[in-house]
Amino acid sequence: MGKRGRQSWSERLVVLVPYLWLSAFFLLPFLIVLKISLSHTAIAQPPYTPVFDLAAGWNGLAQALSALSFENYALLGSDWLYLASYLKSLEVAAGSTLLLLLIGFPVAYGMARAPRRWQPVVFVLVVLPFWTSFLIRIYAWINILQRDGLLNQGLLALRIVDEPPAWLSTDTAVYIGIVYSYLPFMVLPIYATLEKMDETLLEAAADLGCPNWKAFWLVTLPLSRPGIVAGVLLCFIPIVGEFVIPDLLGSSQTMMIGQTLWGEFFANRDWPVASAVAVVLLCLLVVPIVVYEQVQTRDLARGR
Amino acid sequence: MKNGADSSNYQQRRGARRGFAPWAQPAAQALVRFDGVSKRFGGATAVEQVSLDIFLGEFFALLGPSGCGKTTLLRLLAGFEAPDAGRILLDGQDIAPVPPYRRPINMMFQSYALFPHLTVEGNVAFGLKQERLPSAEIATRVEEMLALVRLEGFAKRKPHQLSGGQRQRVALARSLIKRPRVLLLDEPLAALDKKLRGETQFELMQLQQRLGLTFIIVTHDQQEAMTVADRIAVMDRGRLIQVATPQEIYERPNSRWVADFIGEINLIEGRVIDVGASGTVVASDAAGRLRTLSPADAKPGDVVWVALRPEKVRIAQEAPARAEENCVAGEVTDIGYLGDLSIYKVRLDSGTIMKTAVANVTRLVERPIAWDERVWLTWAPEAAMVLTR
Q: Which whole-number Å values give the CA distances from B276 to B253, B279, B296, in the listed order?
């Protein structure tokens, strides 16, 4: 695009900045984690060997490299605990993303169809929870869900249950916490696509013989697909690695991968295994991220 | 966009189709009948007591300034709005209980409203798919329709890969494919450039003739309405002002408002001196005694307006030999050279400005009319009309 045939150095710098940023704060830490995942645990400071020592020269470096091994990854495959954690994470992420979509789409649809003058208000209402600390909101849920909490008080008062059921430390509590916390991330992208949809398209569909429900199916839904894809990935990816919500609301029986990772890192002080867990998690999440990128590029190429 | 080229356009216009005038036959049954239809939005009246008959095979235009209610009338017929009062009949049946998706009426939207996620083919086939026709028949009809609008080879494109003119044709094909009883066109050519618009107007007319369908077009462009339509309804502030053929609207407007809205007009206020079988004589302060052949619904002493199209006024550099009536003198204050026409604005001795349009039939004129030159304007008694409101 350079008007003089080649880019000036300032134009290059602009492109370079995000790459430098990613190299310094993503690629480099990732390489460090990758290296640790190939090391052995040790009672030392830092708690793994080998440690690259530039003072040892080329021979020392070669020796250190040859000491690296994949045995931590072999461990992940051999111990059921890790596999169960990964599966649990994927299950919770898939289940709660589905719930989020089922709740978020109607909310976004209602927002987009609300009278124009109400839309800013509704928008603020959706974003409002962000103004309170995430941790405080999760602690509030502990209060609501505990045995003598608001939820059970309400259920008892309405005589829906005789005995207060246990909500805390169950999967239900984890789902409630996740769906509550992530709802705006599902609603906002879907709202954004629905809001810019031309409503004459629905009139055109009606004109050509579609009842309302069919026009929704044939026009509204396909056109909101970019928003649905964005919302699903914005929720699914971070939920897989979610640590705080299952740790505070869930049980210790079945752990999500974030909790397992935390345990390896802080309880066992096994940095190499913890790093291996992290690297595998990253590889798992690269798949949906690549899908997202492709969808985005295609939509950009389509000029929408 | 009023200029001399527009006002003379009726001369190039297709003449009324020979013998096609169902509105003049008392026995003819209307295909579409608006019967005392009113529609309000909040406090604002969009359509007020409209009664109108539109006949099978007619190309009908709703013409008026923006906000006059013409699009609302179209949307009432399509079923996107419901009338507050009155009835809308199709083939003699009240269509109030019929939802838009069951009406045998299709609409071409001003924005085209093409489905961005579907191909050209998908857009055109959309209406047929709702009827659950066999896919082989759908494919054949889509192909035929694309050929009709000259879009063969574009079937697999998405709307964003098309030019404005091509999108317009996809929208037309999509609205025609169900063979509607009535096709509604909401400003269908507004997004096209002037040249393409002119060509497309003639294509629309040919298409309408070939398919034998009834078209109702909404437009704010009087030239467009006059070019394509068999009859025009001129609307203002929700009311029908005049419904007539283009020629009648231009040559016999029923009011000063219509005369002024369609083309250019010189209006001279005066009092009736004499009304007879041979016409009306009017005395005016601005231009003296005016004789017209047009009969007027007025009696001596009434205030009326003599209306005169600029192209019917002759301009001369010398005083005519004998001129007691229909002759005024003045000075040229403005000259507009349009190529085919020249427009002269003449300030009469009374101070009134009159306009005249002269066709430039020869390439060079020996002594052209100059600014500030004294000129005489004359016209035949049959050129002027008398308007009472």
A: 21, 5, 9
Q: Which residues constitute the domain of residue A281? A: 79-301
CB A300 within 8 A of CB A249: no
Q: Specify the pTM.
A: 0.79
How much is the ipTM here? 0.79
Q: Is residue B335 part of a domain?
A: yes
- CB-side exposure of B130: number of CA atoms within 13 Å? 25
CATH of the domain at B288: 2.40.50.140
| Domain edge (last residue) among A25, A51, A69 | A69
| Closest-approach residue (CA) in chain B for A202 | B113
Nearest CA in chain A to B159: A302
Same domain, A154 and A60: no
Residues A116 and A137 in one domain: yes
Chain B, nearest residue to A212 by Cα: B101
* Cβ pairs bridging A and B (under 8 Å): 62
Residue B38 lies in a domain: yes
Task: Encode chain B (389 residues) as per-residue pLDDT tens digits.
Answer: 334 333 333 333 344 566 788 888 888 888 999 998 999 998 888 999 999 999 998 999 999 988 888 999 999 999 999 999 999 999 888 988 999 999 999 999 999 999 999 999 999 999 999 988 899 999 999 999 999 888 888 989 999 999 888 999 999 999 999 999 999 999 988 888 888 888 889 988 888 888 889 999 999 888 889 988 999 999 998 899 999 999 989 988 888 999 988 888 888 888 888 887 778 888 888 777 888 887 767 778 788 888 889 999 888 888 887 766 788 888 888 988 888 888 999 998 888 889 999 888 888 777 788 888 888 888 888 888 888 88
Q: What is the 3-state secondary structure (H, E, C) of A185-224?
A: HHHHHHHHHHHCCCCHHHHHHHHCCCCHHHHHHHHHHHHC
Query: B191 and B251 share a domain?
Result: yes
Q: Do both A40 and A99 map to the same domain? A: no
Residues of A in contact with B71 (CB under 8 A): none
**Number of domains into which chain B is organized:** 2
Q: How far apart are the first and last CA of chain B?
A: 25
Domain range for B249: 4-104+180-259
Which of A207, A219, A220 to probe by mutation at the B interface, max B CB count within 10 Å? Answer: A207
